[in-house]
Amino acid sequence: MKISVIIPAYNRVATLARAIDSVLAQSYRVDEIIVVDDGSTDATSEVAKVYDEVSLLRQKHMGVSSARNNGVMMASNEWIAFLDSDDTWHPKKIAFQIAHHQKNQASKVMYTDEVWISGEREMPLPKKYHKPETVTFKTALAFCNIATSSVLMQKKLFERLGGFDESLEVYEDYDLWLRLLREEKIDLVPQKLTYKYIDAEDQLSMKHRESAPLRVKALEKHLDSEFDDIVRAELITEYTLLAEGAKKHQHEDDIFLYEARLEQLQAGF
Fold first, then answer.
1. Distance between terminal CA atoms of the chain?
2. Measuring CA to CA, which of 76, 139, 240, 247 is 20 to 30 A from 226?
3. pLDDT tens for residues 66-86?
4. Is 36 exposed, middle or buried (0-12, 13-18, 19+ CB in 10 A)?
5. What is the spatial distance between Cα 110 and Cα 153, in angstroms, rounded to a whole number?
6. Nearest to 72 by CA among 155, 172, 167
7. What is the DSSP letter of 78?
8. What are the DSSP E strand ranges found in the chain?
9. Residues 81, 20, 204, 125, CA torsion sign
10. In the prediction, which pLDDT does 210 show?
């Protein structure tokens, strides 16, 4: 299996080398490492240039989805792995995923368990982040905890799905995995092989605590599918919460928007 690793980076001069080093330390050597500098204003690109093994793509600042998509377009191999520039891998991460695929030839997407690190200390993983053996559309709908940095998948499947939705600043991974789960399964490699550093102040997940409008945008794509009933119920719950929040903060335009959409959903539209 030939593998291309895609590392999007935006102002990650402090962590990019750590991420790249973890790829180079893999016991199963990958064939290509692509760093996509998403318009950094620091020396992120200079860090990438230090490595002869790294191909650097620079673009204007367009967001992580664009960076990943453009990295995949540049990739020359059949399999792609994603690694965020502030995460790292266990040295046997790729080897375990390769071994899983060798035993399960039909597998097109694999993800791993993960470790959370704060400072120098491993943090206990909250119960809701424990990984299910089988991921289905239904189980992922309410809460999907597939870490993008843990995923290895076929490039042609990613391309068929259309890649990450570049209009979503957050929930872009949730959106992609739901679209994928409508037609494929995602296999768990249960070892803790992906390391997430959760105390970075500028992580998107920390900055966008009120990102529910983007979540409903992702969910809307699955109305009129075989999962219409459960998607509609989830959307009704989300729009109800959004309307309540808008009332609390007296955002009149949002109140009208959310309540109108609620009426439509309840009427079957």
1. 45
2. 240
3. 999 999 999 999 999 999 999
4. buried
5. 6
6. 155
7. S
8. 3-9, 32-38, 54-59, 79-82, 87-89, 109-118, 121-123, 134-135, 152-154, 186-197
9. positive
10. 58
Distant-in-sequence, close-in-space partners of 257: CB < 8 Å, separation ≥ 6: none
Collapse the DSSP code of 139 into the 3-class scheme (helix H, G, I; strand E, B; otherwise coil) and give the result. helix
Instruction: Please report the pLDDT score of residue 207 as a whole number.
Output: 44
- CA distance linking residue 253 with residue 246, whole number of Å: 9
Q: Which residue has the tokens 């998607």?
A: 231
The number of angstroms, rounded, from the C-alpha of 141 to the middle of its chain's C-alpha atoms is 15
Beta strands 109-118 and 87-89, pairing class: unpaired
Cα–Cα distance for residue pair 214/212, rounded to 1 Å: 5
The three-state secondary structure class of 115 is strand
Contact 60, 127 (CB under 8 A): no
What DSSP state is assigned to residue 131? P
Distance CA 150, CA 148 (A): 5
Give CA–CA dist 198/205, Å, rounded: 10
Residue 196: closest CA among 50, 61, 93: 93
Tokens of 205: 């997940």
228-248 and 252-266 helices cross at what angle (nearest 10)?
A: 160
| CA triple 79-193-219, angle to 5 deg | 65
Measured in residues, the chain has a length of 269
pLDDT at 208 over 50: no
In angstroms, the CA 134 to CA 153 distance is 16
Per-residue pLDDT band for 205 (boundaries 50, 70, 90) equals: very low
